[in-house]
């Protein structure tokens, strides 16, 4: 991954003029941030509505010579600029800084009309992400917008230069803006402009001309703050020429009226006073997206002292998060000192409602690689001539977006494919306890708590009908591919079993079958990635957990809360029963089956999963004997459980563990002979994660049909036995027979490494879509970012039910069960 990061840095350095520094490889992340399209559309629409309102307000002030109805503070040349007589042109660029609320929706923290940056981030985002990027037309819109302003300006002129000259005005000490000016130069020169990069001491006026290095310029593209414009040489004369329409300044310096944060307080004032200047839609947008804001005044001080965590104090001209004071980030003493400082500063400040920001799980570049962190995203919604043209991300590990602490990532849009339905019920504890007790006393479910944490939730995943159908159809298609590939391994066991990590003893067993079904009960684990695409992670053919939750809890919760949806597991019990009956029929072809054993460990989850299966079939005409795995013994080629001879056995216990343990000597050899294993030993072939690598290896050999090949490439992440064959540096490694996330590592992990002698597969990493789930324990709750995995059960080669759990990026035994239902 370091090589990829270096290549990314060089791309940004040489093609986008990034500043070179010792931190250059820690600024841009190659991992895209995916935002829900619906949320994105709301944010863009709100920005465009507010921009229209701001422009209408400025036009009303300028054209009608009205005084500004909100606090502007003071700065040199303020009156010259604000009361300029120059024609008010549309604003070429502006950026609305947005955040996603912790409770949902977005809010804007400020408007950047004066000299918005982030053009590099937006342009590079499309190049780095491409897929579903909202920034595809950003450079094109930049060029079109600039040409549009130039044409509107020169239609009033009689002497139009053949190749107009643009002076890009920057402060040379601001390296970022200086470097951005080279990027603008490239784009402007592509559409016929000549450019000159000018510092604050390079402008001078001769007659009615503004010159830079003795060249007359036609346009000043201003990357220089209005309130410091007095530092520019000949600034007063430049403003006079702007008044006289002799020079086009982009953005119009009067953008400072829209830039000042006291505008937020005025917008709220108009809302509360029900001003007829603003429309109903604008009122709605202000209420939804602008934190409640008032100007700082002495009468507010007591409230600020009492409830500091509710408020933010800001200077009306603060930039780069300077002079932004967030109450909850201060101690009581620090907060008092801040308020006193604001009082004594005599500079206008405002008080704003504090809005908690949603945390995201993101991967950021660090010194030695990458690190997964909780980040807060500042989304810069960029408008060109009042219309959306791009969006950037700036990430921080705290609430303030400081330039020396942020990092950037590409951004992509996705359609929300996972809908978490939260049960806002004040009697949640009562309902949860009743369901847990019913499952416990009536069904022997003892897994309600894992340590101190509730292991299932009453909130639910609601799958769209189309996603559910895709899971069903994809599962069916993968079953056929697995069966076809498994058959190949059985026919070539001596050659292929060692490739899958299957030793000689087990290889002798798995080459033969007494049944032609894939398995008695198995579970394909599916993930939905951040683009809403379905991806297969693995197949659990030996110990498919979640059967109790899928058959019992899903039904109990469904009946109480979700019966307006469809329960995907309504027929799961019958599918298990039917699968068992048909497997026994296959067993009967070899010998009579009378005594059937059910064995597992005494671990509580293994016990209740095994008992849930037995509970479904216990009325069938067999003598069922259940027990702990250690009670299983071999005598004269037949298995005995607690001394009773067993004709067939269901083992909730991995085959390889049995084979390795000398205590069970002779047991596995019985599974294809006198005491058949109901979960056929041949399914062990598909349990090896190298089985997926074999599938990918067989594609070039034309082993699969065209449709099967398409299915594999669509649903199975590329899996190999060598990372060099992946064509990506973003991958994970997994042991052939790892369980519960054991030893799974990501290539972006700090200190990532592996032993080349290990039996591991390399698999392209799936960026799993996450949810925010309320996790409850005995002392309270927390809202956690979690990654849902949808288990699709298979019985008799058919899709038969769903089991969803959510946990860390690598699902472990701390994951929480999520009831899952389908839209009708």
TrEMBL record:
Residues 38-403, 462-822 form the Glutathionylspermidine synthase pre-ATP-grasp-like domain. The keyword Hydrolase does not apply. Keywords: ATP-binding, Ligase, Magnesium, Metal-binding, Nucleotide-binding. It comes from Clostridium omnivorum. The keyword Isomerase does not apply. Coiled coil: none annotated. InterPro entries: GSPS_pre-ATP-grasp-like_dom. This is Glutathionylspermidine synthase pre-ATP-grasp-like domain-containing protein. It holds the Pfam family GSP_synth.
């Amino acid at each position: 991954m370091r090589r990829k990061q270096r290549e990314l840095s060089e791309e940004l350095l040489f093609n986008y003029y990034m500043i070179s520094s010792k931190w250059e490889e820690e600024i841009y992340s190659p991992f895209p941030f995916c935002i829900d399209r619906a949320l994105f559309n709301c944010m863009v629409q709100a920005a465009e509505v507010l921009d229209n309102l701001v422009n209408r307000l400025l036009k009303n002030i300028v054209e009608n010579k009205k005084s500004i109805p909100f606090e502007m503070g003071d700065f040199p040349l303020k009156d010259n600029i604000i009361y300029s007589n120059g024609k008010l042109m549309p604003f070429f660029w502006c950026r609305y800084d947005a955040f996603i609320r912790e409770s949902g929706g977005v809010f804007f923290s400020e408007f950047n009309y004066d000299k918005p940056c982030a053009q590099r981030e937006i342009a590079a985002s499309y190049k780095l992400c491409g897929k579903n990027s909202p920034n595809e037309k950003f450079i094109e819109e930049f060029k079109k917008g600039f040409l549009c302003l130039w044409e509107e300006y020169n239609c009033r002129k009689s002497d139009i230069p053949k190749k107009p000259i643009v002076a890009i005005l920057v402060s040379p000490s601001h390296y970022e803006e200086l470097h951005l000016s080279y990027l603008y130069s490239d784009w402007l020169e592509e559409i016929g402009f000549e450019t000159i990069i000018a510092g604050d001491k390079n402008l001078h006026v001769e007659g009615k001309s503004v010159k830079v290095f003795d060249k007359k310029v036609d346009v000043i593209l201003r990357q220089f703050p209005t309130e410091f414009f007095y530092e520019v040489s000949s600034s007063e004369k430049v403003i006079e020429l702007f008044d006289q329409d002799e020079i086009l300044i982009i953005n119009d310096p009067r953008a400072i009226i829209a830039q000042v944060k006291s505008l937020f307080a005025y917008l709220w004032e108009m809302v509360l006073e029900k001003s007829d200047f603003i429309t109903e839609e604008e009122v709605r947008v202000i209420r939804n997206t602008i934190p409640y804001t008032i100007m700082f005044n002495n009468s507010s001080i007591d409230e600020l002292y009492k409830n500091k965590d509710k408020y933010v104090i800001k200077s009306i001209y603060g930039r780069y998060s300077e002079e932004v004071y967030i109450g909850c980030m201060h101690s009581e003493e620090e907060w008092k000192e801040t308020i006193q400082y604001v009082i004594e500063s005599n500079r206008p400040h405002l008080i704003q409602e504090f809005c908690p920001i949603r945390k995201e799980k993101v991967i950021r570049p660090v010194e030695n690689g990458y690190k997964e962190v909780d980040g807060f995203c500042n989304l810069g919604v960029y408008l060109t001539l009042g219309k959306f043209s791009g969006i950037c991300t700036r990430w921080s590990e705290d609430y303030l977006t400081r330039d020396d602490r942020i990092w950037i990532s590409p951004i992509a849009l996705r359609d929300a494919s996972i809908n978490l339905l939260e049960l806002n019920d004040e009697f949640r504890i009562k309902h949860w306890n009743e369901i847990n007790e019913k499952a416990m006393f009536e069904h022997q479910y003892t897994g309600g708590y894992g340590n101190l944490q509730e292991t299932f939730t009453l909130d639910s995943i609601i799958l769209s009908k189309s996603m559910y159908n895709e899971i069903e159809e994809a599962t069916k298609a993968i079953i056929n591919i697995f069966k076809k590939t498994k058959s190949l391994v059985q026919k070539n066991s001596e050659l292929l079993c060692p490739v899958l990590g299957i030793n000689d003893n087990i290889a002798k067993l798995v080459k033969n079958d007494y049944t032609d079904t894939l398995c008695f009960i198995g579970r394909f684990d599916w993930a939905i990635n951040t683009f809403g695409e379905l991806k297969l992670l693995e197949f659990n053919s030996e110990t498919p957990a979640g059967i109790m939750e899928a058959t019992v809890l899903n039904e109990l919760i469904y009946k109480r809360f979700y019966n307006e949806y469809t329960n995907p597991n309504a027929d799961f019990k019958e599918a298990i029963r039917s699968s068992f009956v048909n497997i026994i029929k296959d067993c009967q072809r070899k010998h009579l089956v009378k005594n059937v054993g059910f064995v597992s460990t005494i671990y509580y989850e293994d016990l209740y999963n095994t008992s849930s299966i037995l509970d479904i079939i216990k009325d069938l005409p067999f003598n069922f004997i259940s027990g702990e795995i250690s009670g299983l013994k071999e005598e004269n080629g037949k298995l005995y459980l607690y001394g009773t001879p067993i004709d067939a056995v269901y083992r909730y216990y991995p085959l390889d563990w049995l084979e390795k343990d000398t205590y069970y000597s002779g047991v596995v050899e019985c599974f294809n002979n006198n005491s058949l294993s109901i979960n056929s030993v041949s399914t062990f072939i598909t349990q090896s994660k190298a089985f997926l690598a074999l599938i990918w290896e067989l594609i070039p050999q034309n082993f699969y049909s065209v449709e099967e090949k398409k299915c594999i490439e669509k649903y199975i992440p590329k899996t190999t036995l060598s990372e060099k064959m992946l064509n990506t540096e973003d991958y994970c490694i997994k042991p052939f027979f790892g369980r519960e996330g054991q030893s799974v590592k990501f290539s972006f992990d700090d200190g990532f490494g592996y032993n080349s002698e290990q039996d591991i597969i390399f698999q392209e990493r799936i960026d799993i879509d996450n949810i925010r789930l309320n996790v409850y324990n005995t002392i309270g709750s927390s809202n956690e970012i979690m990654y849902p995995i949808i288990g699709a059960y298979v019985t008799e080669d058919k899709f038969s039910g769903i089991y969803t759990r959510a946990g860390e990026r690598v699902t472990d035994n701390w994951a929480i069960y999520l009831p899952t239902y389908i839209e009708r």
